[in-house]
Amino acid sequence: MSDYLQQYDAPLAGLLHWPQWDTLTAALQHANDGGWYVYYVGEEVPEQPLPPERFAHVIGELDRLLRRDHQEPYLGIVYVDDAAQPAFVKIYDPNHLGSSCGSSGRRVLPGWTLSRCPPVDLHAAVANPGGRRRWWQSLFA
Fold first, then answer.
1. Which of 11, 93, 102, 130 has its CA 20 to 30 A from that of 124?
2. pLDDT digits over 48-82, tens only?
3. How far is residue 118's CA from residue 115's CA, in Å, rounded to a whole number?
4. Is 14 in a helix, a strand, or coil?
5. Distance (Å, whole) CA 138 – CA 122
6. How are strands ordered across the β-sheet holding 13-15?
């Protein structure tokens, strides 16, 4: 099993509150050394980590997207291995949640993963909504 899949299947801590997201995004920006892979599940699997300036931009855009599309007093759709020193993050798309914990018997894939190791294709189980795909592609236009 690849390192990515091991991290993907490992227990992760859920961020329940928005201040925890703020702490995580600050930690990600602090650890922004050009070693982060950002994978939008359903798009082409990235072969290279993002340069620091592109990673910073994506984190900012993900923050704006989550705040706009997940207008709840709680968060609950972001999972991380270690919020203080993250190496793997799952972010579920607020417009395609299903049951992210898997209690429905159907495993819902996250919208995005951020990882220190090269990702593998997770798209086989779920197709992403076209509107979100267009949003994602606009970040790289």
1. 11
2. 999 999 999 999 999 999 999 999 999 999 999 99
3. 7
4. strand
5. 22
6. 13-15, 78-80, 88-91, 112-115, 37-40
Read off the tokens for 97.
């949640």
Q: Is the dihedral of CA 111, 139, 45, 52 positive or negative?
A: negative
**pTM across the whole model:** 0.82
Question: Does residue 8 carry a pLDDT above 80?
Answer: yes
Closest CA to 15 of 7, 24, 6: 24
Distance between CA atoms of residues 107 and 123, nearest Å = 12
The answer to whether 119 and 89 are in contact (CB under 8 A) is no
- Checking if the pLDDT of 103 tops 50, the result is no
Q: Are the CB atoms for 45 and 39 separated by under 8 Å?
A: yes
